[in-house]
Amino acid sequence: MEIITGVDWSRAWSEQLSRSNHQNRLRNQNISSEDFWDGFTGWQEMHRYTRYPGKALERVLDSVDPQTTVLDIGAGDGAFAVPLAKTAKLVTALEPSSGQIARLLENAAMAGVKSIAILKSRWEDVSSTEIGSHDVVVAAYCFQMKDIRAALQKMFDSAKRSLFLLHFVDHDLVKPLHEITGNSNTGPDYIYLLNILYEMGYPASLDILTRDYEIPLDLQLDAFVYSHGLSAEHRDRLRRHLESEGKVFSHDGQLWARRRYEDALIRLDKEERYR
Q: For 68-110, what is each residue's pLDDT tens digit?
């Protein structure tokens, strides 16, 4: 467990978040986070290849049965909400982006699930009354929250039984992107969340999960151009890096790239805490 004392982790989170690539992109383009998620049409296709959410979904599903209610915070296109709704009594999907909600509804319709309620809001803006309480609460890659301590407390308070947090550990192109662009600040990672929860008196369990996947090269490069603001030169250098590492290969007349991504699944069970 990565517990480090003597650090103001909530303040460190806020400072690291403000320097992150994502926040820099929002400021430079003068757009909101919702605009960011609405502005790239390739998110759906990306998820076809990245194996997200992978093993994390299996872990959450183990805590869900036909009587379970679930709150999915920052539900995005429904990577968790849609498969969970196949088993759960009801999934409430909280999502502020109109584009993501449209994708979620499309995915739900394709999967034939109807037990999903949509709540269009940012987590910071929604009231406890609107949220209600749910057996299981899931928050995955949705932590663009300056006051992270308050956000986590509200998540914990909303869970009757279990809270699952999924956040960034590492990926194979963090260092190359930094070398190419001079800035690859991914923002505060899972270690911050663990330590903040520990400070709050909520020691949690941790699983580091790896996703190895293959993805069309141009799709991957286009995603980095959009999310990191890569220039044409940066895009070409990243492609050459992947080639030099032997990660580019040909499949059905198309170039593909091999990737590796690590996620941290943090779990808090109220039964364990109050036993």
A: 999 999 999 999 999 999 999 999 999 999 999 999 999 999 9
- SS3 (DSSP) at 41: coil
Query: What would the two tokens of residue 130 be?
Result: 């609107």
Task: Tell me the pTM.
Answer: 0.94
Report d(CA 133, CA 101) in Å as an integer. 22
Set out the domains of the chain in order of their start, with CATH numbers. Answer: 9-175+185-212+261-274 (3.40.50.150)
Report residue 221 as tokens.
């490069």
Secondary structure of 68-118 as H, E, C letters = CEEEEECCCCCCCHHHHHCCCCEEEEECCCHHHHHHHHHHHHHHCCCCEEE
If you write DSSP's letter for every residue of 220-245 in order, what string do you get? HHHHHHHHH---HHHHHHHHHHHHHT
Sign of the torsion formed by the C-alpha atoms of 8, 4, 157 and 94? positive
Please provide the distance, in angstroms rounded to a whole number, between the alpha carbons at the two ends of the chain.
Answer: 22
Q: Are 93 and 118 in contact (CB under 8 A)?
A: yes
Reported as a single tens digit per residue, the pLDDT across 200-233 is 999 899 999 999 999 999 999 999 999 888 999 9
